[in-house]
Specification:
378 residues, Beta-lactamase, 2 domains, five-stranded antiparallel β-sheet, 10 helices, 31% helix
């Protein structure tokens, strides 16, 4: 009982320290958007996040996933003639040239090549229509209920649409793929030149990567119907936290990057990483078996820090034996401490004894026996 009361007291003391009012989220200029916590999936801010809209080259995230799931990414394939006829954003591919699937995905995700998207479709599925069917099958399997693909590149076409909520699901899938996660953090890539001669350098249009050091992906897009779109990801090493932002219908390229940066920076401001319990500070006292009146204080073996949401109470739970077994030495592990926000465990630490306790002596044993006799007659 003493352990539980001590833990609850600490939780009450900690709550006011973390209840610091949070500023209102910035409002991107696009038609719909959202900001989400990568660890929990919680949407921190949003507007019309379930509304389907044209998505432009955000389509290529699904193209990359389906292509990479089709087999060996180092498989060399020929560029179909139909690929170079698509037009608009291009990686400069030539009909019949041979490139690996991996290099085509590089051209797709960084160079945003419509030719690379179509080349992958033909190489993987034999036709654009069959590849698009696989894209839609994958979307359904991921629960993307407001998404439909009509082509692998994202150019405006009736029915080609998605929502910020669905694109968050797709962005998470991209970042779960180690190759894609590394790839989308780059502002440029090189792929082999035509016929294997020289190289082609492809530049990303994700200006967020240039203006926000924490940003590390994922994909931009732009068409007349879609406006400027972006699925962004950023990682704060200081907080140990990752965020996603999805913006659709932004008015121009520069505003898209600025709005994403403002949204992500606000998102990180909603978290803090305090030291909740310093090393050595007692959080519980445990009676010592066989030594009446003796207790041993339990404290974390190291400072307990946790990334927490600002403005939400922190609680602590101590797990330890009802009675400590003597003898005991300082630093001996006795229990564990959990720090929680709501249902989420945000930190764990071992609890160790702060002092030594000797083995019960004759007097201790006599007092324990007399205490037991007294309780019988009570």
């Amino acid at each position: 009982m003493r352990i539980v009361l001590r833990a609850l007291l600490l939780s009450v003391l900690l709550a006011p320290a973390t209840a610091l009012g949070a500023a209102v989220a910035p409002t991107p200029k696009g038609a719909s958007w959202l900001l989400a916590d990568a660890q929990t999936g919680e949407v921190l801010a949003q507007r019309a996040a379930d509304q389907p809209r044209p998505m432009a080259s955000l389509t290529k995230m699904m193209t990359a996933l389906v292509a990479l799931e089709s087999g060996d990414p180092d498989r060399v394939v020929a560029v179909a003639p139909a690929a170079t006829a698509v037009g608009e954003s291009s990686a400069g591919l030539r009909p019949g040239e041979r490139l690996s699937v991996r290099d085509l995905v590089r051209a797709l995700m960084i160079g945003s090549g419509n030719d690379a998207a179509t080349a992958l479709a033909y190489a993987v599925a034999g036709s654009e229509a069959e590849f698009v069917a696989r894209m839609n099958d994958t979307a359904r399997s991921l629960g993307m209920t407001r998404t439909r693909f009509a082509n692998p590149h994202g150019l405006d076409e009736p029915g080609q649409q998605s929502s910020p909520a669905d694109l968050l699901v797709l962005g998470r899938q991209v970042m779960d793929q180690p190759f894609l996660r590394r790839l989308v953090a780059n502002r440029s890539v090189t792929i082999p030149g035509p016929g294997g001669q020289g190289t082609r350098r492809l530049e990303s249009e994700n200006d967020l990567l240039a203006i926000m050091p924490d940003a590390d992906g994922i994909k931009t897009g732009q068409t007349d119907d879609a406006g400027y779109t972006l699925v962004a990801h950023a990682t704060s090493a200081r907080l140990g936290r990752e965020l996603y932002a999805v913006l659709m219908g932004e008015p121009d390229r520069a505003t898209r990057a600025r709005d994403a940066k403002a949204l992500l920076e606000w998102g990180f401001s909603q978290f803090a990483r305090p030291v909740i319990v310093p090393r050595g500070r007692p959080v519980a006292d445990v009676p010592v078996q066989g030594v009446p009146g003796a207790t041993v204080a339990l404290a974390p073996a190291s400072p307990v820090a946790a990334t927490i949401r600002v403005g939400r109470p922190v609680t602590m739970r101590v797990s330890a034996p009802a009675m400590a077994q003597a003898p005991m030495v300082p630093g001996q592990r006795v229990g564990t401490l959990e720090v929680r926000q709501g249902d989420d465990v945000v930190a764990r630490s071992a609890l160790v004894a702060r002092s030594s306790v000797g083995a019960p002596g004759f007097t201790d044993s006599l007092r324990t026996a007399l205490s037991g006799i007294g309780s019988v007659f009570t």
